[in-house]
Design a protein that fits this description.
Layout (H helix, E strand, L loop, with lengths): L5 H5 L3 E5 L4 H13 L5 E6 L4 H13 L5 H7 L3 H8 E5 L13 H10 L2 E4 L10 H20 L6 E5 L10 E3 L18 H17 L4 H18 L5 H16 L5 E6 L1 E3 L17 H8 L5 E3 L8 E3 H14 L7 E6 L9 H14 L16 E3 L2 H25 L5 H25 L3 E3 L2 H13 L15 H16 L3
Parallel strand pairs: 1-2, 1-4, 2-3, 4-5, 5-7, 6-13, 7-11, 8-10, 9-12
Helix pairs in contact: 2-12, 7-10, 8-9, 9-10, 13-17, 14-15
Length: 492
């Protein structure tokens, strides 16, 4: 590992970024444009019908956001010119073969000739995604990106962003080690990417042959994803297809320098380009939103559990430093956990306290102009207590409503169906997220720590590319950065 100036490494560099309008990808692009305006070219691949649609989507979903306000302040009316000179926006799709859906043959040749770094951020992170979508994007798409990278004559490194939760429900210290092809979490044999592809395609074909509606097909493919994941020990199709991708990339990489990045739960920016920028309801933020609006009065989970969260800009900073650190290491593979459960752990109960104090001092104002008064959340610390709670507060009233509805000739049919839907929705969420509510694993980040130490010794710009979890004061971060950011950018 040879560490030099990160800013200098980025100078005159040509980088391909897939999934360019995603949350992390936008932070990555903004960071590079801001700290190294002399980057040669960022090829930004995103789904769109044509170039104009791709350009419009990138401008609307990235450049127009607050995230780019420092660049906007610096370049003013010249911002679009500055960005257009350093980026090429490409309509494409990593599920469409090793050309990544790029139809312009001249552009393809140019990319194969010029690209030095490939950063694969295209993915679906939905726990309840259709199996065909998850497999095609998270696994097969990753293979296509690898095959594209192999054609790049100047390739220095391929950085693939995975997730720490490929570990499934493992407890204890989880190491930064690869998964071998066919390895499963529960010891079940027979895991094979070709078999998974065949099962997915044949199920889809059969459903269409039977004339199933799109709604029926979607429901069936979601159930198939859960079934296939749990057969081999993973809790959902998202982490299963991400684990499959890691296995196949490791097996097929040949001499490609491969870095696999496993971030934990990603939250709002810590400091860069400014504190608190976030987009969409991201994992724990659904709890913040629900609690702040007075909708979350109880929660299922172990209050003493360690919640592994990491600010988005720290993830991006670590990504950029690893690109430089592992450039030109032909045939190498290294895995980085980027999280906080070892270096700076925080318990679930502390998050609850931060939320309680914040919304007591800064209550959400509802549509009627009244402040929402929050209270302490009733934490159900076991599945048994949750089932008792659901039975007492929901299932018994539902049964009573069903009886009354029958007696009164379906007079309360709409109310009954609405309550039934709500209960079904909650139970589905518990089914999907249950494995993480009592998660007992912590993520070893020794490779990441070694990189930090090596960077410090080499004198690289760790002030510009900070990814040290120890620099986070959790109370200050949640009270003054993250929750205010969620309120500003996520609350509707």
């Amino acid at each position: 590992m040879e560490l030099t100036s990160v800013v200098k490494f980025l100078e005159n560099r040509t980088i391909l970024v897939t999934g360019a309008t995603g949350f992390l990808a936008k932070i990555f692009v903004e960071k590079i444009l801001r700290v190294q305006p002399n980057v040669k070219k960022l090829y930004l691949l995103l789904r769109a019908q044509d170039h104009n649609a791709a350009l419009q989507r990138f401008n609307n979903e990235a450049v127009a956001k607050d995230l780019f306000k420092l660049l906007r302040e610096k370049y003013g009316a010249n911002l679009n010119t500055f960005i257009s000179q350093r980026t090429t926006i490409i309509p494409g799709d990593i599920t469409c073969g090793e050309n990544l859906g790029v139809k312009d043959s001249n552009l393809l040749e140019e990319m194969w000739r010029e690209v030095e770094v490939v950063v694969n951020l295209a993915a679906t992170t939905n726990f309840d995604e259709r199996y065909d979508t998850s497999l095609e994007l998270n696994t097969l798409g990753a293979i296509h990106v690898l095959n594209f990278a192999k054609k790049c004559s100047k390739l220095k490194v391929l950085l693939h962003v995975s997730t720490a939760y490929v570990s499934g429900e493992k407890a204890g210290l989880i190491m930064e080690t690869p998964y071998n092809l066919g390895e499963t979490l529960n010891g079940t044999s027979g895991l094979n990417i070709d078999t998974e592809k065949k099962v997915m395609e044949e199920t889809l074909k059969q459903l269409r042959f039977e004339g199933s509606s799109e709604e029926t097909i979607t429901a069936a493919m979601k159930e198939l994803g859960l079934e296939r994941a749990r057969k081999y020990g993973w809790p959902n199709p998202y982490v299963f297809t991400k684990a499959l991708a890691e296995m196949v990339l490791g097996d097929l990489k040949e001499d490609v320098p491969l870095v696999i990045f496993r971030p934990t739960i990603i939250t709002s920016t810590f400091q860069d380009p400014f504190p608190g920028w976030v987009e969409g309801i991201r994992t724990i933020d659904s709890l913040v939103v629900g609690y702040g609006k007075g909708r979350l009065t109880c929660f299922l989970g172990d209050p003493d559990a360690i919640i592994d969260i990491i600010p988005a800009d720290m993830v991006v900073n670590a990504m950029i430093v690893t690109m430089m650190a592992h450039a030109d290491q032909r045939g190498s593979q290294i895995i980085y956990h980027v999280g906080t459960s070892v270096s700076n752990p925080i318990e679930l109960t502390r998050l609850q306290d931060f939320g309680f104090h914040y919304f007591r001092e800064h209550p959400w104002i509802d549509k009627q102009g009244k402040p929402v008064i929050v209270g302490k959340v009733n934490v159900l610390s076991s599945m048994d207590s949750f089932r008792r709670f659901m039975a007492l507060h929901y299932l018994l009233p539902l049964k009573g409503l069903e009886i009354v509805n029958t007696v009164l000739c379906q007079f309360f049919e709409a109310k009954y169906l609405e309550l039934h839907r709500k209960i079904k929705f909650v139970m589905r969420l518990i089914d999907l997220y249950g494995p993480y509510l009592f998660f007992k694993g912590i993520y070893d980040d020794m490779n990441t720590e070694k990189l930090r130490r090596a960077g410090k010794e080499a004198g690289i710009e760790l002030d510009v590319f900070n990814f040290s979890p120890k620099s986070i004061n959790w109370e200050d971060y949640f009270s003054n950065t993250h929750i205010p950011g969620v309120v500003k950018y996520v609350f509707k």
